[in-house]
Amino acid sequence: MTKDTVISATDLSLTFQTNDGPVHALKDVSLNVEQGDFVSFIGPSGCGKTTFLRVMADLEHPTAGQITVNGVSPEDARKARAYGYVFQAAGLYPWRTIGGNIRLPLEIMGYAKSDQDARVKAVLELVELSGFEKKFPWQLSGGMQQRASIARALAFDADLLLMDEPFGALDEIVRDHLNEQLLDLWKRTQKTICFVTHSIPEAVYLSTKIVVMSPRPGRIADIIDSPLPRDRPLDIRDTPEFLEIAHRVREGLRAGHGDDA
User: Fold this and answer.
1) What is the pLDDT of residue 158?
2) pLDDT at residue 223, rounded to an integer
3) Ranges of the chain whose pLDDT falls below 50
4) Cβ distance 107 to 156 under 8 Å?
5) Number of domains forming the structure of the chain
6) What pairing do the DSSP bridges indicate for beta strands 192-197 and 160-164?
7) pTM for this prediction
8) Cα gap 5→71, rounded to integer Å
9) How far apart are CA 31 and CA 87, in angstroms?
10) Owning domain of residue 201
């Protein structure tokens, strides 16, 4: 059975015009993301990882090349509510409860109150925050706030989840726990996930495919299809297979820097 292509980019480039001259954020990027993939994008700061994610979300617009999301333009995919987006910061409104924050996109989209209630309850259970609906963001830890942010992105049940370094500001112990939870959520929901990270262990642990990007202009230095099983205990990070993939990612990052002329 063939998988549907969710993201298809061909020779994608994006140049920002600034007062100091053009900034080439992406150059000739070609990539396919298939249904059910967990794809991580890793590379140095300024390599275009987040820009690429924002192009998928119709928040930035390419200056050359083509990209489709579910076979249509990013704009049409956005209007069809094809994806949920999780930002680096949780971005929860402090005057709204956790339930109120999760409910916000459902209110904007015009879901019936009873449907809103059912969806909020379901996604709180998914991210293990049942019982916290009436709490305010300041009453939750950073990790719990990010889980609430993920719940908000899941509330309208889009098949595609775009995640821009959501765990980057968290300490290593919390990050490990959320990595485990995210893998479990991905397995249960069968969603397609595109995930930006600076962490090699995080990229290798989470992904079915790792996209290694070079410094600006952002290009793809390597695409690694992970041979690791989908069920991954945290201690898989100590295995030779894991370390071998991590080594290849590191080599790709080093080679990408070498290409930066």
Assistant:
1) 87
2) 94
3) 1, 259-261
4) no
5) 1
6) parallel
7) 0.90
8) 8
9) 22
10) 1-82+163-171+196-261
Q: Check residue 65 and report its DSSP letter.
A: E
The amino acid at residue 71 is G
**Coil, helix or strand for 246?**
helix
**What pLDDT is attached to residue 19?**
86
103 domain residue, yes or no: no
Q: Residue 95 is encoded by which pair of tokens?
A: 């005057």
Closest CA to 75 of 55, 50, 93: 55
Q: What is the pLDDT of residue 120?
A: 93
- Beta strands (DSSP E) in the chain are 5-18, 21-34, 38-42, 64-69, 83-86, 160-164, 192-197, 209-213, 220-225
What are the residues whose beta carbons fall under 8 Å from the beta carbon of 164, sequence distance 6 or more?
A: 50, 53, 85, 86, 87, 88, 196
Residue 137 belongs to some domain of the structure: no
Q: Give the number of other CB atoms < 10 A from CB of residue 19.
A: 4
> Is 186 inside a domain boundary?
no
Contact 199, 12 (CB under 8 A): no
Q: Which residues of 5-14 are buried (b: 16+ CB within 10 A; e: fewer)?
A: ebbbbeebbb
Residue 219 lies in a domain: yes
The enclosing domain of 209 has a CATH number of: 3.40.50.300
Task: Report the side by side order of strands in the sheet with 21-34.
Answer: 21-34, 5-18, 64-69
pLDDT at residue 20, as a whole number: 83
pLDDT of residue 31: 96
pLDDT of 44: 86
